[in-house]
């Protein structure tokens, strides 16, 4: 079957999609967007996290046909300019992960970036403060890092939230 | 394999009637695992995410009629006051990403004994609405679970909604697992006090082939509670309640826990949740006095 939807602001179409195929497979294998990682294929690890109509989901558990006509945002779309941009500026979340050294093997990073972006949107983005550690841990509970580098990841999330808050305060002033 | 995508409820019922062996898919958190691992290849999927009624809820009588596809995230955000035990259970489901997609309808469709929604639905005497082209009927949760992954739903029926009665007393849910997140319950328990009818409801998960009630424990503790006076329960009564709850369990030994551990955990959760509920009930009486 044919599936058409929006990815990172662009309209895309995939052909010959099998009815039981996941959105993750379509993104990686048919649309050339390998940022979302394929690891557990059962919603346990969070490495394939994307936004589906502004709500985060494990793309391995979304049937491709369910994305028809919907809007998807992947890790490639976090940086300004998105996937199609030649030299996109990194988003605060991405910069913070680099600065904090929150990346070891890197396989879990794309999912963590998307889920962190969502946390910041739901806290700082809605006029709230920098999330407490407990809130960060809860929001990222479905994202596994097999290198177990969680301390640096939490540092990075806090840093990203602080930078976003500072920037929004600046704009408000 | 076909991908069927009805956009109205009537169309969905017609599609299910024409393809009774097609598998309905909402959040996909169970269905896609089966497909990804090629454990099961149904002739067709029926995507229900485009049927608006399934993700709505509205007051009905004293309670709330909740569309079967309402996500756990929305239950937590919108129905915590209407269905406290169900909202607590929803908070314990997997991870935020899964809660954004998973729904009570999926729990009921799969009918795994470990599904988080089952104990609260049993304890609060919720009612499940089933529909087909033949018509709509309502089945109490207490009569819905018939056997291992076998329910009162007929082949051509879809799970439409769940009627959540208005709480008439404190409700609690508890669950045992190796960590807070991403855990399939080793054992779970829900309790609901109904001060209006002076009854207590219970629900037990992961401890038998189906979710079950502990009826003897319910009747025993309802008789022990000082519903009007709010005096504390005798310690012996709390212990006995735990024993009676554990006595209905028919658990198995598996990788998540032994049968003995499950029974022990169940009695502890029963005592704890009872203590929380009774404390709330007594506070309520003090405030009224």
TrEMBL record, chain A:
Keyword Metal-binding recorded: yes
InterPro entries, per the entry: 2Fe-2S-bd, 2Fe-2S-bd_dom_sf, 2Fe-2S_ferredoxin-like_sf, 2Fe-2S_ferredoxin-type, 2Fe2S_fd_BS, Beta-grasp_dom_sf, Diverse_Oxidoreductases
Keywords: 2Fe-2S, Iron, Iron-sulfur, Metal-binding, Oxidoreductase
Glycosyltransferase is among the record's keywords: no
Record domain 2Fe-2S ferredoxin-type: where: 1-78
Molecular-function GO term, any one: oxidoreductase activity
Signal peptide: none
UniProt-listed PANTHER family: OXIDOREDUCTASE WITH IRON-SULFUR SUBUNIT, XANTHINE DEHYDROGENASE IRON-SULFUR-BINDING SUBUNIT XDHC-RELATED
Protein's UniProt name: Carbon-monoxide dehydrogenase small subunit
The organism of origin for this protein: Murinocardiopsis flavida
From TrEMBL, chain B:
SMART domains per UniProt: CO_deh_flav_C
One MF term in the entry's GO annotations: oxidoreductase activity
Signal peptide: none
Pfam families: CO_deh_flav_C, FAD_binding_5
SUPFAM superfamilies per UniProt: CO dehydrogenase flavoprotein C-terminal domain-like, FAD-binding/transporter-associated domain-like
Keywords, ordered alphabetically: FAD, Flavoprotein, Oxidoreductase
Top-level taxonomic group: Bacteria
InterPro entries: CO_DH_flav_C (IPR005107), CO_DH_flav_C_dom_sf (IPR036683), Diverse_Substr_Oxidored (IPR051312), FAD-bd_PCMH (IPR016166), FAD-bd_PCMH-like_sf (IPR036318), FAD-bd_PCMH_sub1 (IPR016167), FAD-bd_PCMH_sub2 (IPR016169), Mopterin_DH_FAD-bd (IPR002346)
Matches recorded under PROSITE patterns: FAD_PCMH
Domain FAD-binding PCMH-type intervals: 1-169
Region (Disordered): 92-117
UniProt-recorded name of the protein: CO/xanthine dehydrogenase FAD-binding subunit
Lineage: Bacteria, Bacillati, Actinomycetota, Actinomycetes, Streptosporangiales
């Amino acid at each position: 079957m044919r599936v058409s939807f929006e990815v990172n602001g662009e309209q895309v179409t995939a052909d010959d999609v099998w009815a039981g195929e996941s959105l993750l497979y379509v993104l990686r294998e048919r649309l050339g967007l390998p940022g979302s990682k394929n690891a557990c294929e059962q919603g346990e690890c969070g490495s394939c996290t994307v936004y589906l109509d502004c709500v985060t989901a494990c793309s391995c558990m979304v049937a491709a046909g369910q994305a028809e006509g919907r809007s998807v945002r992947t890790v490639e779309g976090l940086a300004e300019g998105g996937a199609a941009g030649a030299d996109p500026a990194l988003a605060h979340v991405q910069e913070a992960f680099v600065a904090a050294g929150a990346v070891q093997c890197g396989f879990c990073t794309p999912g963590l970036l998307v889920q962190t972006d969502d946390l910041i949107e739901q806290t700082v983005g809605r006029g709230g403060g920098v999330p407490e550690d407990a809130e960060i841990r809860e929001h990222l509970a479905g994202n596994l890092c097999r290198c177990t580098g969680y301390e640096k990841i939490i540092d990075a999330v806090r840093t990203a939230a602080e930078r976003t808050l500072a920037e929004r305060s600046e704009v408000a002033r | 394999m076909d991908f069927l995508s009805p956009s109205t409820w009537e169309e969905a019922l017609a599609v299910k009637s024409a393809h009774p062996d097609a598998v309905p898919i909402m959040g996909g958190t169970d269905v896609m695992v089966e497909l990804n691992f090629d454990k099961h290849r149904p002739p067709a999927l029926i995507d229900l995410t485009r049927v608006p009624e399934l993700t709505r809820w509205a007051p009905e009588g004293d309670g709330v009629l909740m569309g079967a596809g309402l996500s756990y995230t929305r239950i937590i955000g919108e129905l915590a006051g209407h269905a406290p035990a169900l909202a607590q259970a929803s908070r314990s489901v997997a991870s935020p990403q899964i809660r954004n997609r998973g729904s009570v309808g999926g729990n009921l469709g799969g009918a795994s004994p470990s599904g988080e929604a089952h104990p609260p639905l049993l304890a609060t005497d919720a009612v499940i609405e089933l529909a087909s082209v033949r018509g709509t009927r309502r089945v109490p949760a207490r009569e819905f679970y018939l056997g291992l992954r076998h329910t009162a739903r007929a082949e051509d029926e879809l799970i439409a909604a769940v009627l959540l009665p208005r709480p008439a007393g404190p409700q609690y849910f508890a669950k045992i697992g190796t960590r807070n997140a991403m855990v399939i319950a080793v054992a779970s328990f829900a309790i609901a006090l109904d001060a209006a009818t002076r009854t207590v409801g219970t629900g037990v998960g992961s401890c038998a082939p189906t979710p079950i009630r502990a009826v003897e424990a319910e009747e025993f503790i309802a008789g022990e509670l000082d519903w009007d006076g709010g005096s504390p329960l005798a310690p012996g009564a709390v212990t006995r309640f735990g024993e009676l709850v554990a006595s209905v369990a028919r658990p198995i030994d598996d990788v998540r826990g032994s049968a003995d551990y499950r029974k022990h955990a169940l009695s502890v959760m029963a005592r704890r949740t009872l203590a929380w509920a009774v404390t709330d009930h007594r506070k309520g009486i003090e405030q009224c006095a």
